[in-house]
Amino acid sequence: ETGVTQTPRHLVMGMTNKKSLKCEQHLGHNAMYWYKQSAKKPLELMFVYSLEERVENNSVPSRFSPECPNSSHLFLHLHTLQPEDSALYLCASSQEGGGNSGANVLTFGAGSRLTVL
Amino acid sequence: DAKTTQPPSMDCAEGRAANLPCNHSTISGNEYVYWYRQIHSQGPQYIIHGLKNNETNEMASLIITEDRKSSTLILPHATLRDTAVYYCIAPPNLGSNYKLTFGKGTLLTVNP
User: Fold this and answer.
1) Is the pLDDT of residue A51 over 60?
2) Which residue of B has its CA nearest to A48?
3) What's the confidence (pLDDT) of residue B30?
4) CB distance A112 to A7 below 8 Å
């Protein structure tokens, strides 16, 4: 496989369920991201991991818990979600630390469509 | 990020050039302009980026004005598959994407 792969592509869960979204990148990148895209809203950056350490957490509720076990894998653990958390969750990766070259390009996965009932 | 302004929507006839404008009047001297696009319900896709000079790749051309306050993304021969939301972004040049934020972009509709 190439690029950034997200599973599952679609997930329906109840408010009391616990589920996880998985992201895997095959690009040798050293940074990974979670974005949330609600209907008719811009992408919102949720979490950033660089070299497996969390470097950014944009005030995301604790019911979203990220995990980055290695530079190729990123998880988003979900528990006691609310209906308003229904959205497209996008994972991305990039190669950071290259200085001011301007070539800091994000590669996105296809996303996981989450519906919370 | 330098604030960017894009029209909310544009139409283009199939086979014609699509010219998507972006204003970034507050851009700093070392901040690049990036373009991404997002086809419906898919992840965004990188298109092109530039600093001062015009750039071209297999997907598009990027024309940046001399004062760097605006730019235009050109799709030379638009196809129906180019229908997407196009994002113009000018992130702070920190050598990272940690502060990269997406706005609402321009919805380009390519008509047959």
Assistant:
1) yes
2) B98
3) 81
4) yes
pLDDT for position A97: 67
Cross-chain Cβ contact B43/A43 below 8 Å:
no
Tokens read off for B14: 């199939």
Q: Which of A22-36, A87-101, B17-31 has the lowest mean pLDDT?
A: A87-101
Tell if the CB–CB gap between A105 and B103 is shorter than 8 Å. no
Tell me, what DSSP letter sits at residue A64?
E
Q: Cα separations (Å) of B111 from A56, A65, B18, B82?
A: 41, 42, 11, 10
Q: Do A111 and B30 touch (CB under 8 A)?
A: no
Nearest to A108 among B41, B45, B91 (CB): B45
The residue among A26, A4, A10 whose CA lies nearest residue A91 is A4
pLDDT confidence band for B90 (50 / 70 / 90): confident
A 10 A CB-CB count for A32 gives: 24
Amino acid at A59: S
DSSP B53: S
